[in-house]
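Handoff note, outgoing to incoming analyst
You'll be picking up this chain. Sequence as last confirmed:
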Amino acid sequence: MTFTDTTRERAREIIARYPADRSRSALLPLLHLVQAEEGYVSPAGVAFCAEVLGLNKAQVGAVATFYTMYKRKPTGDFLVSVCTNTMCNVLGGQEVYDTLSEHLGVGHDETTADGTITLEHAECLAACDYGPVMTVNYDFFDGVDASTAVGVVDELRAGGRPMPTRGARLCTLKEMAVQLAGFADERDGAVADGGPGEPTLRGLRLAQQHGVSVPGFDPNTPIRSKAEADKAAAEAKAKAEAAKPAPVEATTAPVKGGDGASAPTGVAGPAKPEAATGSTAPDVKAPDDKSPQVRTAETRQPDASTAVPDAPGTNVPTDGTGTAPAAGDARSAEAAGVAANAPAGDGKPAGDEAGAQERNLTEAKAGTDADGAGPADASETGAQK
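Most recent structure output, in case you need it:
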């Protein structure tokens, strides 16, 4: 397959959307682009994407086979997807699918002989409040039943374009792939129709009915541009800085003694009383040089010899008499626990006795047990042990 100059030009445009060292991020829209020309992602399409992105075909194929929107074999002009997941199924989705399958004479992921319709069942189309639903090239037909679904596909096969319940006017799968690659739909009035359904607007209707709204919300407030938002943020920051109180400079006036005489030069006056904190602990410098894990461990079980009982965030456990444990008790207990619970090795489960295993292996190799039994008896004895 030799792709057209238009496809190659669009491929270069897609790649240019991404930083030079992130060009592989363009793979998803490129796969839609090749599907727009061929109607599916062929081996040639995989090779094309690998070529323009400098990838190997295995990397491209891994992505193309992961997403269901990339078709791996020729697909009809209209992809009809019927939801058969729980909600739609309960409401009749499976009946819709079965009727279409029988009417069109095709099964899942199969295309009619005229190349118009490809039918598939979908696990979920994310429209449970409109079930049963089906989509045509990903545009919704809500609340369908078997007869309305048959009417839609018959109109498509006759060359018509039925109007979706929600969304723009129908287009072919190739035209849809161009849009998914990131290019505008150039058809006249392509996005002129469509609109939200009533279940989607139900919450808005209830809010209007009961007068519910966001406090201070003005729907007529225009959305500011980035430049306007940055300017407003800078003005707010400047206003906040201006509102801060000026720092109080330390006084250097001489301090009068009790007899009215001046204190010697350089002698500081009495310190201002600090606000009471309710703590009798001395000021403790924050251990910035310690990792959060170390600080957490020391908070849970500090050494009594160094811990400050009233330090913020520190709770020294006692034995019930108000006496803190001796220094290092936590480390001793941890060491004792490790010694009593040896970790399991690669060769045996935790708790198995290595001596018994080694003895059985030795006896099996020797072909006899301690009583002189033969190889068969030795195997049985070893198994019992």
